[in-house]
Design a protein that fits this description.
single chain; alpha+beta; two-stranded antiparallel sheet; 7 strands
Length: about 475
C-alpha cells in the first residue's frame, strides 16, 4: 500500500508538471496572439489615420491635417514588419499576408498621389482620384484582411483561454488529490515507522530477555555437564562393580573347579593301581557335586556378564542413533502405549484414563514410543497386589516451547531414598519379585535426555507414583546445527 501510494504520488507530480507546462504553453501562445492582435490594430489604425489625414487635407487644403499621414509614412513600415514577424509561419495568416502588403502599398501610393496633386494645386484631379473609389477598394480589402486576422486571433484566443481554464481546473484537482495522497503516504509512512519502532522495541526486549536468560542457560548447561560427569563417574563405578562381581565368582569357582579336578585326575590316571576308599569317594563327590556346581555358577556368572554388557550397549546406542524429527500427536502415541497393556490392566479389573486433547510436538517417534511403553509396562509390573490398577496420563503445556507429560499409577510406590536411585543403571528399588536387570528407567532417562527433555518421579510407598516427563515441543530447535 505504501508503494502504491508513492507511485500514485509520483504520477500526480508528473501530471502536475505536465499541466503546468501546458499552462505555460497556453500563456505563451496567448501572449503571442495578443501581440499579433495589437499589430493588426496598429496596421489598421495607422492606415485609417493616413486616409483620414488625406481627406481632411483635400477638404480644407490645411496641411495640419497631413500630420496623421506623415506619421503613417514614418511608422507604417515598422508596424507592417512587426506584424509579419509576429505572424511568422502561422498558416492561418501567412496566405493573406502578401495581398495585404500589396494593398497597403497601393493604398499608401493612392493617398500620396492625391496629396501630391493637392500640393501641385491640381485639386480637381486629386478629388477625382478619391472619387474613383480606387482607394476605397484598397481600404476595403485591407480592412477585410485585417478583420479576418482579428477574428482568427480572437477565435484562437477563446479556445486557448478555455483550454487554459480547463488545465487550471485540472491542475487544481490534481493538486488537491496530490495533497490528499501526500497526507495518505505520510500517514502510511508514519504508520510504518511506528510499526518498525514497535518491532525494533520488541526485538530489543527479546534481546534483553535473551541476555537476561543467557546466564541462566549457561548455569543450566553447567549443571547438565556436572550431572553428566557425575553420571559418567557413577556409571563407571556401577559397571566396574557389577562386572567385577561375576568375574570374582568365575575366578573363585575356577579355583574350586581346579581343586575338585585333582581327585578325578588321580582316579582317572591310577593306571590299575588300587585306590583307597577315601580317594574313590572324593573322586565320586567331585564328579557328582563339586564340578557340576562350579560349572553351573561359572555359567550363571558369564550369563550375568553378558546381560550387563548387552544393557550397557543398549544404553550407549541411545546416544548414537540418528533422531528423526517428525510431527507426533501425543494423544495418539499415549493411546497406542495404553493399548499395549490394556489386556493386562483389564485382567486385574483396572482402568486406564487418557482423556486428553490432541497436542502435536515435533520429536523422534521411536524414542517417545519406547519411553512411554517402558513407563506403562513398569506400572503394570509393579502394581499393588489386590488393588485394581489405575493408570492415567496427562499433558500439561509448560510454556517456552516445553510440554510436560505425567504418567501416574496407584501401584507399590517408591521409597523417598530410592527416587533418584531408580534411574541408575542396574539399580532396582523395593521388593525384587519381578524379573529385570535394572536398566528400564535408566534407558528411559537416556532416551528422554537425547530428546532434550528430562524425567523425574514423585512417589509414596503404598500409594503409587507419578513420572513427570518434560519434552521440547520442537526437537529441531535444540538440535539445530547438529545431525538429527
Amino acid at each position: 500500500m505504501f508503494g502504491l501510494g508513492v507511485a500514485l504520488l509520483i504520477g500526480m507530480v508528473a501530471t502536475s508538471l505536465w499541466l503546468v507546462q501546458a499552462n505555460n504553453k497556453y500563456s505563451q501562445e496567448t501572449a503571442e496572439l495578443r501581440r499579433i492582435r495589437a499589430s493588426i490594430l496598429d496596421v489598421l489604425t495607422t492606415i485609417q489615420d493616413a486616409e483620414t489625414g488625406q481627406r481632411g487635407y483635400l477638404l480644407t487644403n490645411d496641411e495640419r491635417y497631413l500630420a496623421p499621414y506623415r506619421e503613417a509614412l514614418r511608422t507604417l513600415g515598422d508596424i507592417r514588419q512587426r506584424l509579419a514577424e509576429r505572424i511568422g509561419n502561422r498558416p492561418e495568416y501567412i496566405a493573406d499576408l502578401p495581398k495585404l502588403q500589396s494593398n497597403l502599398d497601393a493604398k499608401m501610393a493612392e493617398i500620396g498621389r492625391a496629396v501630391q496633386l493637392m500640393n501641385d494645386n491640381r485639386t480637381t484631379e486629386a478629388i477625382d482620384l478619391v472619387r474613383s473609389d480606387t482607394g476605397l477598394t484598397y481600404m476595403r480589402e485591407i480592412r477585410d484582411t485585417l478583420t479576418r486576422y482579428q477574428e482568427t486571433t480572437d477565435n484562437r484566443l477563446r479556445i486557448i483561454v478555455a483550454d487554459q481554464l480547463s488545465a487550471a481546473e485540472n491542475l487544481l484537482w490534481v493538486t488537491i488529490c496530490g495533497a490528499v495522497a501526500i497526507l495518505a503516504v505520510l500517514g502510511g509512512a508514519l504508520a510504518l515507522i511506528a510499526k518498525y519502532i514497535r518491532e525494533l522495541t520488541r526485538s530489543r526486549e527479546e534481546v534483553d530477555e535473551l541476555n537476561r536468560g543467557l546466564e541462566e542457560r549457561v548455569d543450566e548447561r553447567t549443571r547438565d555437564l556436572v550431572r553428566a560427569n557425575q553420571e559418567i563417574q557413577k556409571f563407571a563405578y556401577i559397571v566396574t562393580h557389577d562386572l567385577r562381581a561375576p568375574l570374582v565368582n568365575i575366578m573363585g569357582f575356577l579355583s574350586e573347579f581346579d581343586t575338585s579336578l585333582k581327585p578325578v585326575q588321580a582316579f582317572v590316571l591310577a593306571d590299575g593301581k588300587t585306590l583307597s576308599e577315601n580317594e574313590v569317594r572324593e573322586a565320586r563327590l567331585a564328579v557328582e557335586e563339586d564340578l557340576p556346581e562350579a560349572m553351573r555358577f561359572i555359567r550363571s556368572s558369564t550369563r550375568k556378564m553378558d546381560q550387563l554388557i548387552n544393557a550397557i550397549l543398549k544404553i550407549s546406542r541411545d546416544g548414537r542413533r540418528k533422531l528423526q524429527a517428525e510431527k507426533v500427536d501425543l494423544k495418539d502415541i499415549l493411546t497406542t502405549a495404553s493399548a499395549s497393556v490394556q489386556h493386562q490392566v483389564t485382567a486385574v479389573d483396572g482402568k486406564i484414563d487418557i482423556d486428553i486433547q490432541n497436542f502435536t510436538v515435533i520429536t523422534d517417534r521411536i524414542s517417545l514410543d519406547q519411553i512411554l511403553g517402558n513407563l506403562f509396562d513398569n506400572a503394570v509390573k509393579y502394581q499393588m497386589p489386590g488393588r485394581p490398577l489405575e493408570l492415567t496420563a496427562r499433558i500439561l503445556p509448560q510454556g517456552r516451547g516445553v510440554v510436560r507429560i505425567d504418567v501416574s499409577d496407584n501401584g507399590r510406590g517408591i521409597a523417598e531414598d530410592d527416587l533418584e536411585r531408580v534411574f541408575e543403571l542396574f539399580r532396582r528399588a523395593g521388593e525384587q519379585d519381578q524379573q529385570g536387570e535394572g536398566i528400564g528407567l535408566a534407558h528411559v532417562r537416556s532416551l528422554i535426555r537425547n530428546l532434550g527433555g528430562d524425567i523425574t518421579v514423585a512417589s509414596e510407598l503404598g500409594k503409587g507414583s507419578t513420572f513427570h516427563l518434560t519434552l521440547p515441543i520442537d526437537l529441531r530447535k535444540i538440535t539445530r546445527g547438529n545431525d538429527i
